[in-house]
Amino acid sequence: MHEPILSIRGLTKTYTNGPRALDSVDLDIKPGEIFALLGPNGAGKTTLIGAVCGLVRPTGGTITAFGQDLSKDWRKARARIGLVPQELATDMFETVWRAVTYSRGLFGKASDPVMIEHILRSLSLWDKRDAQIRALSGGMKRRVLIAKALAHEPELLFLDEPTAGVDVELRKDMWQQIAALKERGVTIILTTHYIEEAEEMADRVGIIQAGRIRMVDEKRAMMERLGTTEAVIDLAAPLAALPEALAGFALELSQGGTRLTYRGGNGEGKGRAEVAQLAQALTRAGIGFTSLDIHDSSLEDIFVGLLGEKQGEAA
Q1: Which of 8, 66, 197, 231 could be joined to 192 by an S-S link, Cβ 3.0–4.6 Å?
Q2: What is the pLDDT of residues 287-308, one digit of tens each?
């Protein structure tokens, strides 16, 4: 078992006369993984990244990266961390080439034009290397931020809402870029409120709300544990009540006895197997049906369900 590349314990951030942005956060990040931190706006995602990257001073807790306590040896560890912020924090009159080269120098790395060219080509920015950043499209500007973050060859890369405001085609293109970084051995933490981004890319998913980590799990395990299969069956003739032959299934009778709704299993196969057994049981019992519609819960269903449950508890 590898040591975590990043270990966070009891991390708290309370702003003066303001809310508690982080509330005793514990989190371990494994080397080489893509970890997606999911949460609504204001959940604490950007504050958490800022604390690790030295942009936010925590109120309490510890952060260890590469085995080093960031509060004691911040500069050395930070040189191995890259950050792609949400906001376009760069000189708009600078050329792409100069901006990315300057970012490399900021971390004390020797000039390496071959490395910079490789980064720009991998992000489809090579043809724009002499363009001023202000002249680029929004998607291209975001690629420049990624190039700047990669210029000093970080081992741990933070992507804060990396595809916010870009179109679907560019978003999928950037997913490919992120997957390529993982192939090169870079550990990636991305924050997002695009569920499909986490579902497409992440090895593990963490859900954060109101400064607290609600859940962290392997993506597949989370869907197995919390996912459900729902089947809606429209019957050929109404039932007055559920017959004994269907007693073993999680069923609800509605629409005047003409609709059966099944909820159970999980989104990874068990529920679908039970629906197949249910269809056979209906046939054996002589109960005809006109349609059968199956839906497996997605990560979005789980996310919305968890947050809705939490808000219900707080109400």
Answers
A1: 197
A2: 889 888 887 776 667 777 767 6
